[in-house]
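stage 2 :: seqdesign
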């Protein structure tokens, strides 16, 4: 006799339950017949591809974080010595290391639009002497002066605006240039050549722009320091001249003595 509300075991009819269904699937999987469940390889391939992309992006993130740390270090380095020549050299050297270039330079633009100063790193001193006068802002350097927007080239020689190199100049392929703006003034340009990674990337451009922005504070501070130092030297020179003019010189016949000198002695005689 069946329990009230229970299944009729004599008739073989059973109510559906999740446990029974799971057992049935297990039984099917062990019979090995044609009705066994199989899983296609496509989802597994997609999963492998997705895992590869995740790993690749993770490496990219780590690489980007490393370069951002390099940017912070470069920012600290260029704000050391307040002397302007030292600051300019440190900016060029930090840019070469941060972006990954064989050569780097910083050109200071004068009132007439030419380069009045050209600080460079990467080219040996004997080669610099063989090349001769430093660039004045022609060719691609002049393009960046006239139109201060970032330039990125895979090959310098392929650009019609390039004026070539003087004799003895080391060969350079890739080029990256960004302006250095101090408020509304374009102070100069940062130039990089020959990427150590093959070609300059869009990320390299962003890093160079970020470093140029960080360099503004260091350059501005160095210029203020230089102006204050010059003003202090001028004040010291003025004070020395004033003391010299006011100090009595008994051997100078043109020196006017105080007319009251000796009055007390005369009256006391």
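stage 2 :: out
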């Amino acid at each position: 006799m069946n329990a009230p509300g229970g299944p009729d075991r004599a008739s073989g009819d059973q109510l559906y339950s999740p446990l029974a269904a799971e057992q049935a699937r297990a039984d099917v999987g062990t019979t090995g017949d044609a009705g066994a469940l199989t899983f296609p390889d496509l989802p597994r391939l997609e999963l492998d591809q997705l895992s590869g992309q995740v790993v690749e992006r993770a490496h990219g993130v780590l690489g980007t974080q490393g370069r951002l740390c390099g940017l912070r270090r470069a920012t600290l380095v260029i704000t050391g010595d307040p002397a302007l020549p030292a600051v300019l050299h440190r900016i060029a050297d930090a840019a070469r290391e941060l972006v990954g270039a064989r050569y780097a330079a910083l050109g200071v633009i004068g009132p007439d639009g030419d380069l009045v100063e050209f600080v460079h790193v990467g080219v040996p001193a004997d080669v610099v002497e063989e090349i001769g006068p430093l660039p004045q802002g022609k060719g691609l350097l002049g393009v960046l002066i006239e139109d201060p927007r970032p330039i990125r080239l895979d090959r310098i020689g392929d650009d019609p605006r390039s004026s070539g190199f003087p004799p003895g100049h080391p060969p350079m392929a890739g080029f990256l240039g960004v302006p250095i703006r101090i408020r509304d003034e374009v102070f100069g340009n940062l130039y990089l050549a020959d990427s150590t990674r093959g070609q300059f990337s869009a990320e390299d451009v962003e890093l160079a722009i970020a470093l140029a922005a960080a360099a503004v504070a260091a350059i501005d501070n160095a210029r203020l320091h230089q102006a204050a130092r010059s003003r202090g030297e001028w004040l010291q020179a003025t004070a020395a001249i004033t003391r010299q003019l006011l100090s009595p010189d008994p051997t100078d016949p043109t020196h006017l003595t105080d007319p009251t000198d000796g009055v007390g002695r005369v009256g006391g005689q």
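stage 3 :: structure notes
- Residues 1-19, 28-32, 57-62, 262-269 have pLDDT under 50 and may be disordered.
- Residues 59 and 65 are 10 Å apart (CA to CA).
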